[in-house]
Amino acid sequence: MADAITPRSEDYSQWYHDVVRHARLADYSPVRGCMIVRPNGYALWENMQAGLDGMFKATGHRNAYFPIFIPQSFLAREAAHVEGFAKECAVVTHSRLKVGDDGTLDVDPESKLEENLIVRPTSETIVWDTYSKWIQSWRDLPILLNQWNNVVRWEMRTRLFLRTMEFLWQEGHTAHATRDEAMEETLRILDIYATFAEDWMAMPVIKGVKSAAERFAGADETFCIEALMQDGKALQSGTSHFLGQNFARAFNCQFQNRDNELEYVWATSWGVSTRLIGALVMVHSDDRGLVLPPKLAPTQAVIVPIYRSDEDRVAVLEAASVVESKLRASGIRVELDAREGFRPGWKFTEHEVQGVPVRLAIGPRDVANRTVELARRDGGEKQSVPVDGIVASVQEALDSVQFGLFEKALAHREANTTSVDSYDDLRGVLDDKGGFVRMHWDGTSETEARIKDETKATIRCIPLEGYEEDGVDPVSGRPSRGRVLYARAY
Amino acid sequence: MADAITPRSEDYSQWYHDVVRHARLADYSPVRGCMIVRPNGYALWENMQAGLDGMFKATGHRNAYFPIFIPQSFLAREAAHVEGFAKECAVVTHSRLKVGDDGTLDVDPESKLEENLIVRPTSETIVWDTYSKWIQSWRDLPILLNQWNNVVRWEMRTRLFLRTMEFLWQEGHTAHATRDEAMEETLRILDIYATFAEDWMAMPVIKGVKSAAERFAGADETFCIEALMQDGKALQSGTSHFLGQNFARAFNCQFQNRDNELEYVWATSWGVSTRLIGALVMVHSDDRGLVLPPKLAPTQAVIVPIYRSDEDRVAVLEAASVVESKLRASGIRVELDAREGFRPGWKFTEHEVQGVPVRLAIGPRDVANRTVELARRDGGEKQSVPVDGIVASVQEALDSVQFGLFEKALAHREANTTSVDSYDDLRGVLDDKGGFVRMHWDGTSETEARIKDETKATIRCIPLEGYEEDGVDPVSGRPSRGRVLYARAY
Q: Under CATH, what is the fold of the domain B12-90+122-284?
């Protein structure tokens, strides 16, 4: 891939695409709308899974697996769900191929299914059909399940990771005896998502609740975390839904409560997806390529040996091996790039493009001085550090990169969050500066729809913190209980 | 689930089903042919994944993800592949649902796809279409990728884990510059599968190569591991395919070799699936329920506190907590079952049904004596062991269970492997005793087909070890180069 990465200032969308491709995170597939997640991208996903899965399990959740196929009739059971959600999907209608008279392979018309199957766009319906069989009494509750899987939503405007027909995600589905417990779970997961985004991804997020228009179809309330990308557009990075008793009613899932009365079960569902990889790229990367937070980087530190003569080669590689062993023994994910036939400068560029947080270079002079040259992917001076303290030096650099990325992203978000008190100012900020715009809202879908229609900005969320403030919606002139967050979004 | 487990001697098939259901490993789904993997079953799969994934990565493989949809035309590209394999499958023909005039939800005829998409039955075609874009030179080789995903093969005769329409698996796909390297890889993976089966699953296996009739469609050679179940039937537990240049030719994947000549790339593919969970159940379990090898057991040791009075309760739970902490700190997967309202005997039965390898009970007398009662799931005397040495006692018991299960399964296989020299003896052994039958084979598909037709036994494999021995095929009377392994199989 010899062509350069397009600068952000020139074409942000092309820059994103270039970074993803140059860092070998993903590739287009022969099936329009689908992507191939390449090893570099999948390793990121594995690290994300490990971080999230640990938090889910620490809060009592277990993993399970439900079928990929949903009977067509299931999707019709929850009215709001089908209306708002499940129309664009992959429909399986036949179960056999056959070679026709002309020698070509085609579907066998005789294999038409009695009922079409839908490739899951999400699993609430099949989960709640199952829970209705598993749950009889309050003793069977709560059920706290999660699954890691693939889902399909028909979508032709592909953007790798951000918008694809098939994507990987986790979907949690929990069942509770009381409204309060279910709401508590919904918010517990929202906190987990926020913690993961901030502590692992180094991506500051705003926790909030969606307006009715932006709510998940079938939910009573949708909570979300919203992040700001470098181009000033917002990205919804995770959602946690309080489903009330809607799916329990649709699938007749009742339980005997502690007072021996039959009651519908209370529900939540929640998910984050490979979209987070897109967010990670857009929040931290620069014109030289990918920038990764060390906690998620598949390779945290790379060692590049530098030598000309064969004699130097032996000494340099030996010193590099010692450093590699020390770092690996301390739990740092390290790679020694000893490939022959590639110049050090070429290797530097490659690891830079792939976002390795810390680069160590060792040449003959370093061997003589028992030092290593340490460079951080996020910039700053190169340092010469002693081999003896290499573990501490690298760990300190990794911590500092992790912290620095978060601080930088937070500063960017703060610089790009604007409070406005007039519709003109909202339009002006959206067009000139972008970012989050805090403005009073009267709480009606009517006002929200008008603004979306006229500005392409949506209410990203009603923030959970710092929302309440009496005021007036500048668009409708009606009273408002607080400022909501408007933005154009991915 | 109050009903008892059917004894093996009465109805082996029902026994298997009962064990899976009572241990809550899996459940049937509303979609015929698909299963729901419950948390106990999925936790087993997670432990299997961890074991295998570690071995794949230690041998240089990386994970990736390819799309779930395969264009219909791809399946037609490799002639043997489509002919032998890809006919019964889930065909996606439409991309939208709509609510009709009568108010019901149905497929929108206007959303018919230009080309049908097949839900992947396996990914060779889409992988090799992709590799043909990634590979230009010998420098791009080898490519050593694996993916963990779900696949679909249309199948209505469901048996949980053993035969389902959708299952979870891993599929490795590697690309090599030479035939030798590809063959080496094929056998390396076969060894990994055998090591995993024996060291983790405690399931002895025979490594071998398939006859042409049993080969994967599109492969030049299929290698396999074969295990023997308690009912004397064989179960193919993993396959590693040497694909030669077949898929490279079908997808025009050529590379410039070191001599600057264009050459087709050499390939392998290999997989194991959730079928292994079925194997695990059938190899080790007994009439009381699931029996698990400690290395894979989600819970390795459970602690059941026993008390009557409130005073005893406090002291017993405190002692149980101390034991729990010690075991957890040493890396043993331990659970303290302190649930109220369930009798100890009921808990004993539940953990027995679920296959927990070691059970610890602590009552008031144990508290006084600073002891714990230790019982192994695989039988043997209960022991009273001191709290002070509890970690060593439990670790020793776990090691002993792991080893004992393997030894027992090996003894069963040896007792049920019979060499015969006549067709009558083959039939007699198959009908009366079952198991593996070693008999000379002339190497022709004709003889193989006749035996399969007349006895329902297939050639499970030509063993890699101990095969060569000159002789005569008793069915055809033709010369044979060695004894192959016949059995009836799942």
A: BirA Bifunctional Protein; domain 2 (3.30.930)
